[in-house]
Task: inverse folding
């Protein structure tokens, strides 16, 4: 087994796929939003002619995304065929949920390396998912959450790849701490990490709350100024609130 | 830490890491880690290695701090 083994490279392929999806989903999210808004702003009538104004970045991201996905899956299937031909005893299934190809268990040490790698991924998910759940409470654009989830997938694959790579480089250290002193040190280190994660969450929460309060305050001030102008012009002030997390929207309509 | 004589006996029998790895059914890297004492093989693997190097397993592997010939 060496670094050119397709099973070793699989996490890198997964990372590339995540990057492609990152590009593709930018356009997808934008177009889905447009669809639910009845393509407002896309079609307009100028001098009795329908003018279409496609959102350029979103359209480009969809086109590039589709091309990259097609190229990716062609290259991916070719690599799988080549690998399965050269390694009939370690065949890889392109689409599987039961035994992903990147989980290598050719011998007992590789099994241990894979177990340690998956343990690291587990610890990573345990730390990052509560943070993600917390972030879901905020009214960010859906694309932000897609980016975050794809980044988590990138890190997950990177952890797997780096661990297997250490084994192939000969720099893997499988020793577990055995003495009480080492266990104590490890526990202290974990407590420090946990404290750091909790304080990061608290800092992020406070930052978001402060930013939101500033936004609400400035929105309120600007609405007050606009409302006064509107009423001076004899028009009607309309204020709408789309939901708990959205700022109040202001519009000034003619009094007819 | 588990000490061993795998490297010495492998060389004496004229085996490369790849040769012995193929004979016992592991990868070359795993043999390298066993030789360096970085990985403690299972009893089954230790027995297989000992068999191919024509030596009793307790003469091939021993715990650090214990005499090899105890």
Result:
């Amino acid at each position: 087994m060496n670094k050119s083994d397709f099973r070793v490279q699989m996490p890198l392929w997964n990372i590339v796929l995540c990057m492609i999806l990152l590009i593709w989903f930018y356009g997808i999210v934008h177009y889905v939003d447009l669809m639910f808004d009845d393509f407002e702003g896309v079609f307009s009538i100028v001098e009795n002619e329908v003018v279409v104004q496609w959102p350029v970045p979103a359209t480009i991201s969809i086109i590039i995304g589709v091309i990259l996905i097609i190229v990716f899956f062609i290259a991916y299937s070719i690599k799988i065929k080549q690998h399965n031909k050269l390694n009939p005893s370690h065949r890889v299934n392109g689409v599987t949920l039961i035994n992903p190809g990147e989980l290598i268990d050719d011998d007992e040490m590789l099994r241990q390396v894979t177990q340690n790698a998956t343990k690291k991924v587990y610890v990573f998910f345990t730390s990052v998912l509560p943070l993600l759940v917390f972030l879901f409470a905020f009214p960010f654009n859906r694309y932000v959450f897609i980016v975050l989830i794809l980044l988590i997938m990138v890190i997950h694959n990177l952890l797997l790849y780096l661990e297997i790579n250490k084994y192939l480089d000969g720099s893997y250290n499988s020793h577990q701490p055995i003495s009480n002193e080492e266990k104590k040190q490890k526990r202290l280190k974990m407590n420090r990490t946990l404290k750091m994660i909790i304080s990061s969450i608290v800092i992020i929460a406070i930052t978001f709350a402060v930013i939101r309060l500033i936004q609400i305050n400035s929105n309120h001030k600007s609405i007050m100024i606009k409302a006064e102008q509107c009423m001076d012009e004899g028009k009607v002030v309309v204020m709408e609130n789309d939901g708990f997390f959205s700022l109040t929207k202001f519009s000034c309509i003619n009094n007819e | 830490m588990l000490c061993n004589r795998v490297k010495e006996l492998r060389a004496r029998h004229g085996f490369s890491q790849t040769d012995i790895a193929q004979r016992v059914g592991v990868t070359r890297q795993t043999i390298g880690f066993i030789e360096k004492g970085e990985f403690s093989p299972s009893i089954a693997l230790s027995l297989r290695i000992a068999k191919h190097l024509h030596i009793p397993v307790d003469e091939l592997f021993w715990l650090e701090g214990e005499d090899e010939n105890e």
